[in-house]
Specification:
- The protein is an alpha/beta fold.
- The protein has one domain: 3-Layer(aba) Sandwich (Rossmann fold).
- The protein is built from 12 helices and 12 strands.
- Strands 3-2-1-4-5-6-10 form a 7-stranded parallel sheet, with helices on both faces. Strands 7-9-11 form a 3-stranded mixed sheet.
- The longest helix has 21 residues.
- It starts with a strand and ends with a helix.
- Bound molecules: nicotinamide-adenine-dinucleotide.
- Nicotinamide-adenine-dinucleotide (NAD) binds next to helix 1, helix 3, strand 5 and strand 7.
Amino acid sequence: MRKKIAITGAGGYIGSILVQRLLENDFSIKAVDMFFFGDAPLSRLRAHPSLELVRQDIRSIEPELFEDCDCVIDLAALSNDPSGDLDPELTRSINERGRMRTAAAAERAGVRRYLFASSCAVYGAGLEMNLSEEAPLRPLTVYAQTCARAEEAVLARNGAHFTTAALRNATVFGLSPRMRFDLVVNQMTLNAHESGRITVAGDGTQWRPLVHVRDVAEAFLLALGAPRQAIGGQAFNIGAENRQVIDIARSVKRAVATPSLITFAPGGPDRRDYHVAFGKAERTFGFVADRTIDEAVAEIARAIRAKRLTDTPTCHTVRWYRDLLSRPGQGLRLPDLVPVEARLPIAATA
Ligand SMILES: NC(=O)c1ccc[n+]([C@@H]2O[C@H](COP(=O)([O-])OP(=O)(O)OC[C@H]3O[C@@H](n4cnc5c(N)ncnc54)[C@H](O)[C@@H]3O)[C@@H](O)[C@H]2O)c1
């Protein structure tokens, strides 16, 4: 029988690529999302017989949702630093308590494996190069703090019947049906194309690990199949290469057809600065990223020129969430519910 995977945040930038990749690999998918960016990113797959779409907030998820699932991949979150700063308490309710609730519900439902989409942002301002997964975490933002706390809670649940692992993703780039132009490579590509200017925040010497969105999907696919003992209770850095932000700008400048000028944004320095090692994921489950920034820049620029990709408000995560928060009834503000753990065990309720 096909394995069934629930993916929370399935309608997002990574989720909409991952759903397609897992369907191609003969998995059945339960795509769980509030679809804050709409459900268009999954529209071309909607008729697929192995795909089920469920509109559900992770803050009110119940174990019953996962009872027919073998694995859960947890991607739902307010997905970057500026969005996390809009309303820190809201961010904690989704990114920390919502994700912990999802893990608790999955374990209770008898799900066998739980993969958590964490972020290399947990390293904050790294003091060394080639940070391994054992390096101390110094999260600088609310977003990064919630990643670190949720990750710790999820990994602590690892046990003989419930395997948990965290993939600490580098900053992602590349084309996706839910396009994000707030991610550094994608943003620089759009700006170069539209205005002939590439803006660098701070002095550009800060390091960023990077990875293509299709390689992230590959990493989740490999982690789904990895032996339980090899990955259980552990975190893995997922990335292709580390670059200084000024160097990313130079790559984009070379790769786009439009002649462009690199400029520096006024304002304080960007304190986020981390250079990460990727060897553990390769040694443990054979993950090696193979898509480059240059390929992605060329692909995005081609899609813009061919008008297959347009810059819409949903492509800018923080602006879109700010707009949703200004309009009542958009589903973002919800009261916290009783935690799954606080309910009676399923046997005792019978
Ligand atoms: N994109 C990156 O560069 C990157 C890097 C590191 C880690 N990550 C992590 O990967 C995950 C996915 O990122 P993404 O880039 O696809 O983000 P995204 O914003 O495109 O997708 C997140 C999805 O979660 C959904 N969502 C948000 N709150 C929800 C809630 N309360 N209930 C149900 N659904 C909800 C949104 O509707 C959206 O579809 C996030 O956890 C993010 O923190 C992303």
